[in-house]
Specification:
Length: 83
C-alpha cells in the first residue's frame, strides 16, 4: 500500500506474477453543496474553502458509485488470481 499520493490518494498493488498489468482508478470527493435531505446518512460535514470560508460538502456526483465499482472489480480480480 502506498499513501499520500497527490495529497490524500492511496495505491494498492496486487501482484500475480509475470504478465499483463491492470490499472484501475476511482475518485472520491465532495462538492460544496448543502445536503437538504432528512436521510440518516446525509452529509453534515463542513470544510474550509480556499478563501477560508466554512462550506457544507456532500457527495453528489456519482463518485461513490465509481469507488464501489473499483473495489468490486479489485475483489473479483483478486479472487480470480489463480485462473
Amino acid at each position: 500500500m502506498h499513501s499520500s499520493i497527490d495529497g490524500h490518494g492511496v495505491v494498492g498493488v496486487f501482484s500475480n506474477g509475470a504478465g499483463k498489468t491492470v490499472l484501475m482508478r476511482a475518485k472520491l470527493d465532495a462538492l460544496p453543496i448543502l445536503e437538504e435531505t432528512t436521510l440518516p446518512y446525509r452529509s453534515e460535514r463542513r470544510m474550509l474553502n480556499r478563501y477560508g470560508n466554512t462550506r457544507p460538502v456532500m457527495h453528489a456526483c456519482g463518485h461513490d458509485m465509481n469507488m464501489a465499482a473499483l473495489l468490486t472489480a479489485a475483489d473479483l480480480l483478486k479472487a480470480a488470481a489463480d485462473e
